[in-house]
Amino acid sequence: MIKSLSVRTPKRTCFINITAEVARAVHDLGVVDGSITVYIPHTTAAVTINESADPDVMRDIDVGLSNLIPHVGDYRHAEGNSDAHIKSSLLGSSEIVFVVDGELVLGTWQGVFFCEFDGPRTRTVLVGSSDSVS
Ligand code: ZN
What we know:
Layout: E1 2-8, E2 14-17, H1 19-29, E3 34-39, E4 45-51, H2 55-68, H3 82-91, E5 94-100, E6 103-104, E7 110-116, E8 122-128
Antiparallel strand pairs: 1-8, 2-7, 3-5, 3-8, 4-7, 5-6
This protein binds zinc ion.
């Protein structure tokens, strides 16, 4: 039970709120109660859950990560995107979200964000369930 979503990222690093798309996938999958996994099948992107109310939060995470992990540094990977690989591993390739009555269980301020670290590209997001379905 997996649903594949496509996300177009507009620049090298950006965070895209995919909460509505994930919620739609949960409905399409017929998940009523249980949990879903949001999985990113890429090595230079990630998924995270954080504040969706104030866009400056994701901007600050972007700037903070880039200060910690600069684009240019003591890297050997010939592709020139080691910073993107490191950020991807730090934030992680999956998130689990509980589902109750067919709705995502998120805190008031929480949203699900696709994290692009080596765009612009067209990316894939997989939403999967192994739990009870209708
Ligand atoms: Zn690479």
